[in-house]
C-alpha cells in the first residue's frame, strides 16, 4: 500500500506554490499517493485586490481540518511573516482542535517549506516556530539536513536550510524561485516521501 502524502500550501503571489508543486511532483515520483492542496484564504476579495494578488488556482482544492487524518505525511508550505506562519495558516491550525483532542494526527509525519522577502527575513525561525504545532498534535517533524549538497554552495544567494526548502521573494515579490531553490524543494519532496513510504511499508509488514 503506497503512502498517502499531502502537500498543502498558502501562496499569495505564486512563490510558495512553485516550491510546493516541485515537492509534490518529486514525492509522487517515489510511488506515493500525493495530493496538492491549499490553505483557505482569510482576506476579503477587496483587500486581495488592493494587494494585487492574482486569483487562487481553482484546480487546487482547499484543505479542511477533516482532510488531514487520512494522510500519513504532510508537507506544509507557506511564507513567513515576522518569523512565523502567515495568519491564514495560523487560523487553519487553530481550527484543528478536534484533531488534537482525539489524537487524530499522532504519529503522522510533517515537514515545512517557506519563503521570505530577504535573506534574513525569518525563514529558519518560521520552521522553528511551527514545530510546537506538530509537537502538540503528536506529529513527527522531518527536516532535510544537508542531504542536498546545493545548500552548501556559496556561488549564489539562495533560500533553503537544513530545516527545509525556501525562497527569497524580494520586498516587491519580483524575484522568483531559482533553479537551486526548486531543486531543494524537489529533494525535500523525494526525501520526505521516502521516509513516509518506508514507515508505511514497515507498518504494513507487522
From TrEMBL:
GO terms for cellular component: membrane. One of its GO terms (molecular function) is NAD(P)H dehydrogenase (quinone) activity. Gene3D superfamilies: 3.40.50.360. Signal peptide: none annotated. InterPro entries: Flavodoxin/NO_synth, Flavoprotein-like_sf, Flavoprotein_WrbA-like, FMN_Rdtase-like_dom. Residues 5-192 form the Flavodoxin-like domain. Belongs to the WrbA family. This is Benzoquinone reductase.
